[in-house]
Amino acid sequence: MKNTIKTFAVAIALMLLLPAFSARAQVYADSSTDLDKYMVPVTTPTAVPDAQGFLGRWLLLEPISKPNRSNTVFTDSYIREVFGQQYFPGQLGNTLPKDGSKVKVTVEYQPPVNLTAGRPMMPMGGAPQYEKKDVQLKWHAMDSKRFNVKLFRFATNLTEDRYGVIFWAVTVVECDKDMPNVRLAVGSNSASMWWVNGEEAVILSGDRRMVMDDCTSQRLTLKKGRNVIWGAVINGPGMSDFCARFIDEEGNPVRNITLSTK
Amino acid sequence: MKKNILLALACALLSLSAAAQVGNPYIHDPSTIVLCDGKYYTFGTGGGGLISADGWVWESGAVRPGGGAAPDAIKIGDRYLVGYSTTGGGLGGGHAGRIVTMWNKTLDPTDSLNFAYTEPIEVANSVIDEDCDAIDIGLLMDDNGRLFCTYGTYFGNIRMVELDPKTGERLAGNKPVDVAIDCEASIMIYRDGWYYLLGTHGTCCDGVNSTYNIVAGRSRNPYGPFMDNVGRDMLQGGGKMVVAADERQFGAGHFGRYIVEPGVEKMSFHWEGDLDRSGRSVLAIRPIIWREGWPEAGEIVKDGNYKILSRRRGYALELTVDFVRAAGGMRGGFGAPQAPAAPIKGQSIVDVLKTWPDGVIPVRANDYMARPHQKWTIEAVPSAGGYLGGPYYKIVIEGTDRALAAAEGGVVVTVPAFTGADEQLWQIEQLTDGTYRIMPKVVPGTEERLCLYSTGDSTPTLAKFDFNSDNAKWDLKMH
């Protein structure tokens, strides 16, 4: 009986320790780059954050070509200027574009990367000349299958662009009550800016890698009902992605919200 | 004016000598330092590498065939396993990469009998455009004899495979596991049952504007998850800082660990840009400090004025001379002051120097009273060479040339003037707990390496280093 109790106690202790040592299963390498490995089109009216509170439902605009051969140019001033431009009607507005709708944008055209041409470095010669080109870009309502939104694969699967790009993202957070003193916590590759209900909430400048909770907003209030979250990510030669969640005063994820793209 | 310029140049030379490796330590993406037949080796991107006889003065000369990028090296048994990627970096194109390993019986290219690399064997690869770029190999053999290999860049995930330590090949059936994102130059190290995964974040390859920095996460399981100090998975970008930029050196990347002996560990990496060397990429070596279970970069001792305090009791190393009472005397502590309070000048060397004997003066330790015979100046001696990651120093009483020296019989004394003799040169290294080991280059009359050691609270001597004893450790505090 004494041994049984001892064994039971050891088992309980191991169970308590286990989460710290094996928070998740091993992630075996997978060479697939299909879009549905990373995200899928929205098929339900609403979604909820994942177990860590990450916001997975976003309306994403196909990348706007913005050639940059190095991410070291992403100063606060630069990204404020670039994201301050009007790319499409309703930008940062309260009404979301419709899934599948298209916007016309004039971009600096850059030829697609030739993946089979060896391993070229980003060209570092003189300043390249880019011709202006009018393009139509489409909005896609997507549910990320990961904690992060892999914009790079969104781009490589749906467009010819992958580097030197700007992504716009928007989602709606529905709350059943006012939520004061929460923060928007973001990580992005590379620089990004984020707005909550039309107000700038957080900026991530510089040549950044995507790090969970890299930058957080000051305390803000998610109001009862509809809250619109906009984000813009810029990248030169990098694998664009972002992760965003709301955290409370103790740093715990805010999960009692719903997400939609309407 | 001319004198001032010369003085400034001399100061610049001194600070250069203490801040980074000397000689021609130009390298990018250095492999973990390996000792072979009494010499240190590290290999770099593109082929070749550096050799050092003492670990401080580095010159080119190491030989690695195959070109490619970012090698790593490890000694297993009596052979050396060298891995590298046959492909280079860059984000602009495809990312089909190959990681290979090869063996050599020696790393000494002048040993024509034994120096011959085996044919490279592929141990991992990445196919075009998948979320991995198979370059930047890092090798670890853990305490259980298991050999791990991490690889990858900013293009996707850092992955790990397990190798056969007998052949250097991938273990049969072993599948690559994703262990981190958005890193480069990953490598694992093992300590006290923890596997640490170190990776480089920040901007690469931009000279003195490179923001490369090295971070770490840890796991009890070699396959992760590797969590940082606030519980973030490195697959979610987590990582605790190990080393970032210095004042004149920038872009720390490509970590390697070298264990000298228990309590004495070094990290090698490169600075992407060194302002003291035209902004070129150079080899860096720093002590590893383990603080609350996490590695971080210690410091190479900078030239300056220090008090040298024993860890045994906290007493200060001092000359064995009569102390001179400080000015100020005994003051009444009670009642209203009869005059406004005013500062009193502290004791200086000129107040006491004439009271000291000429010739050899022994040393002892005593409670620190900011007296001149307790104040030391530590300066690197650029012409004296060094040891792994540090130059030899002279230790003199501040404001004088009276130098600390090892003497016959394993004792420590001071001599009237520093002559540059080996027994007056000191190896000063930060230990893994942040304290210092102070060791003369030689001790007259013995071949043994001895260190400054407290046999009693007040009695320093020279004795064998023991990391488990505070008798062998000292604190250096600038004053």
Task: Furnish the topology, listing elements before pairings.
The complex is a heterodimer of chains A (262) and B (479).
Chain A: H1 2-21, E1 27-28, E2 39-41, E3 57-61, E4 64-65, H2 76-83, E5 102-108, E6 132-144, H3 151-158, E7 165-175, E8 179-189, E9 191-196, E10 199-204, E11 215-216, E12 220-222, E13 225-235, E14 241-247, E15 258-260
Antiparallel strand pairs in A: 2-6, 3-6, 3-7, 4-7, 5-6, 7-13, 7-15, 8-11, 8-12, 8-14, 9-10, 9-13
Chain B: H1 2-19, E1 22-23, E2 34-36, E3 39-43, E4 49-52, E5 57-62, E6 69-76, E7 79-85, E8 97-104, E9 121-126, E10 138-141, E11 147-151, E12 157-163, E13 177-181, E14 184-191, E15 194-201, E16 213-219, E17 240-243, E18 249-261, E19 264-274, E20 280-291, E21 294-297, E22 304-310, E23 316-319, H2 349-352, E24 361-366, E25 376-380, E26 386-387, E27 390-391, E28 393-397, E29 403-407, E30 411-415, E31 426-430, E32 436-440, E33 451-456, E34 459-463, E35 474-478
Parallel strand pairs in B: 1-5
Antiparallel strand pairs in B: 2-3, 3-4, 4-5, 6-7, 7-8, 8-9, 10-11, 11-12, 12-13, 14-15, 15-16, 16-17, 18-19, 19-20, 20-21, 22-25, 22-35, 23-24, 24-30, 25-28, 26-27, 29-30, 31-32, 33-34
Describe it.
The complex is a heterodimer of chains A (262) and B (479). Chain A is mainly beta. Chain A has one domain (32-112, 129-260). Helix content of chain A is 14%, strand content 35%. Chain A has helices at 2-21, 76-83, 151-158; strands at residues 27-28, 39-41, 57-61, 64-65, 102-108, 132-144, 165-175, 179-189, 191-196, 199-204, 215-216, 220-222, 225-235, 241-247, 258-260. The N and C termini of chain A lie far apart (61 Å). Chain B is mostly beta strands and 479 residues long. Chain B folds into two domains: 23-297, 5 Propeller (Tachylectin-2, Chain A); 304-322 and 348-478, Trefoil (Acidic Fibroblast Growth Factor, subunit A) (Trefoil), CATH 2.80.10. In chain B, strand 11 and strand 12 form a beta hairpin. The longest helix of chain B has 18 residues, at 2-19. Chain B is elongated. Chains A and B meet through strand 1 of A and strand 13 of B. Strand 1 (27-28) of chain A pairs antiparallel with strand 13 (177-181) of chain B, so a sheet runs across the interface.
